[in-house]
Design goal:
Blueprint (H helix, E strand, L loop, with lengths): L1 H9 L1 H19 L2 H28 L2 H17 L14 E3 L11 E3 L7 E4 L2 E4 L7 E9 L5 E6 L12 E4 L2 E9 L4 E8 L3 E6 L4 E6 L7 E5 L12 E4 L11 E10 L6 E7 L8 E5 L4 H11 L10
Antiparallel strand pairs: 1-2, 3-4, 5-6, 5-16, 6-9, 7-8, 7-16, 8-9, 10-11, 10-13, 11-12, 12-15, 13-14, 14-15
Amino acid sequence: MKNLFLFLARFQGLLAFGVLEVISLYLFVTTSSYQRAAFFNSANAYAGVVLARRTEVLDYFHLGALNQQLLAENARLRQQLYPPDVSRREADSLAVPPAPGDTLHRVRYVRPAQRPDTLLLAQRRLAARDPNYPLIPARVINNSLRSVDNYFTLNVGLADGVRPGLGVLAATGVVGRIKAATAHYATATSLLHSKTSVSAKIKRDNTFGSVHWPGDDPTQALLDDIPRQNKLVVGDTVVTSGYNAIFPEGVFIGTVASFVKEPDKNFWTVHLRLGPDFTNLTYVYVVTNRTRPERDTVEARALPPVGKGGRR
């Protein structure tokens, strides 16, 4: 306390000057409307600069959480692009009471609204807008490119709804398929894998084929099974066909870069430029198909077993 009094006694002149300066500024600002407006405008401008810098610093330390929020939102929005399997079906006709004044009391059959909330199919109600392909956002934490059989690892697993066999998409197209999963991590076979094959089609004319990686350039792939009589155009868009129930129909794969007629083959040799950049794969989406188990069961009963070396 003695030191405080000594400090005040030593600098009493300077302290008195500071107090009087503050009082004079306060009176100067409050007694003049012009000066008051100018002061508050200047104060707001400086405060805005300080607050903006503070926000930039705080946002920097919250970039991880912000990226996760944006990724989840993108997953919800991208999910709306994929039409559910029931989108092309029509609801069954429903019996309604006879029309007023109908003396014969005839039962009428009418269809629901053009875009109903639910569809009645074989006496079973289905949600008309329920998406069949929910997306699970994920981060790529490891990725290989230099092998013939490449894999990548995701930071999601069984606890997040990921399981083996599900497809993996990036914002620019198909990237792979889940191979194995633990509680919190999953490993996927990349599209850059010798055993990966994706059912595809040329968007322009719906010609179906199969996309696989030849094992060299990570930006290129081959489109097989395109008949020689089909007309091809450089730049044709190639998308998923939806045949294998792993990926929704219409997901971008790549564009036709070149094509050659081999003399001893009945099909084109088509080179694709892949959409995803596998050298910079960061955020992806694991796509699930709610109707796939039912479809697999039906196809397993109807189709003969695939022989050795066969491919579905």
